[in-house]
Design the sequence.
């Protein structure tokens, strides 16, 4: 590491220490209340989008109102780029960004958190720009609703008042990351710094449409067995047919995920070492998807893949995901792909994967899971519970 990078790292650590916020390399996983976010920020600014560059991932805001402190400039520039631990993070922000949209910007001159209503993201100063590091989905436990109503609530909180705000229910981290957690309303104020949902609970549901809650049904878990694999060179003669549903892979090798070589994680997870190094490998697995699951209203199936290097994933011969970043290390999960239920057959389906690898490569890795997400019907309120007790005369 060179001297300039060391100095920058030291500066970042100092900013984090002063800000009492977590470093840019991790989500804010601790349960923050809206009161705590407002209290720990030196500046709270209501912003409005004035310009958007979708190709470069740039969002330019104008300052609408200072709720706390005085932000030094009228124009606030955010470089979203393609930042985050998952592509959906920058994609969610840029999908939201349109001229006229409003957001609330919390910062201390260094670390910052921006709420765009039903999503949050973190930025740090980069000259005249603020550069996004990643999204902050767990801050949805502090607020999840309209940005305009957030500004009104924060203004009241800063005056010492108590308000009621919509928040996502704490629980499954995956549901929070995917914005599929249930909504409830909690009390918020400068006196309610520590998170205590039981203490602050007011009612279920938000100010508008309630976000649907999901349950997950695993179809093929990570580390599953029954995979077939071969070096891609050995199936070159059959063209693309190795991806298809009816292809005969009975002569292929069989193993348990994760697959690869050069990674300690393979032995740690009791996976399969692949002897064929520095070349692409192809994989196939038959998965059984129950017909009743596919018939479930609103069902969505999700493939997650951890690969090194990039991969192409096929379902019954149809390409469903292609990782454009050619050379990278694996992580759980590199790719997270939603697939409509109608693309699956009732019963047996085939997932086929091409994991790319170059000459001289020191490692290769593949693990994959397939799960269904099924909406849980909202419970209708019990009229008897809604009825107020009669007043005593």
Sequence:
């Amino acid at each position: 590491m060179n001297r300039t990078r060391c100095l920058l790292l030291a500066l970042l650590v100092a900013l984090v220490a002063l800000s009492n916020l977590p470093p840019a390399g991790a989500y804010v996983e601790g349960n923050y209340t809206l009161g705590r976010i407002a209290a720990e920020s030196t500046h709270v600014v209501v912003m409005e989008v004035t310009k958007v560059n979708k190709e470069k991932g740039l969002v330019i805001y104008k300052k609408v109102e200072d709720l706390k402190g005085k932000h030094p400039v009228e124009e606030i520039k955010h470089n979203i780029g393609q930042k985050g631990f998952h592509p959906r993070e920058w994609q969610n922000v840029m999908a939201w960004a349109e001229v006229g949209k409003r957001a609330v910007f919390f910062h201390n001159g260094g670390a910052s958190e921006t709420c765009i209503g039903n999503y949050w993201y973190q930025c740090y100063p980069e000259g005249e720009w603020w550069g996004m590091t990643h999204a902050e989905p767990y801050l949805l436990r502090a607020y999840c609703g309209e940005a305009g109503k957030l500004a009104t609530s924060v203004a009241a909180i800063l005056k010492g008042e108590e308000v009621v705000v919509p928040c996502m229910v704490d629980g499954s981290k995956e549901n929070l990351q995917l914005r599929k957690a249930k909504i409830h309303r909690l009390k918020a104020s400068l006196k309610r710094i520590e998170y205590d949902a039981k203490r602050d609970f007011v009612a279920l549901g938000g100010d508008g449409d309630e976000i649907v809650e999901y349950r997950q049904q695993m179809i093929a878990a990570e580390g599953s067995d029954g995979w077939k694999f071969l070096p891609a060179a050995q199936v070159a003669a059959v063209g693309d047919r190795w991806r298809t549903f009816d292809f005969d892979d009975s002569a292929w090798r069989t193993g348990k995920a994760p697959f690869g070589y050069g990674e300690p994680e393979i032995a740690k997870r009791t996976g399969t070492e692949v002897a064929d190094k520095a070349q692409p490998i192809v994989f196939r697995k038959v998965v059984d998807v129950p017909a009743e699951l596919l018939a479930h209203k609103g069902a969505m199936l999700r493939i997650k893949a951890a690969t090194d290097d990039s991969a192409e994933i096929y379902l019954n011969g149809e390409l469903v995901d292609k990782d454009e970043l050619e050379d990278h290390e694996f992580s759980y999960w590199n790719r997270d792909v939603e697939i409509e239920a109608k693309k699956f057959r009732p019963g047996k389906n085939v997932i086929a994967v091409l994991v790319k690898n170059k000459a001289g490569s020191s490692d290769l890795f593949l693990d994959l899971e397939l799960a269904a997400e099924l909406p849980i019907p909202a419970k209708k309120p019990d009229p008897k519970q809604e009825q107020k007790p009669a007043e005593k005369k």
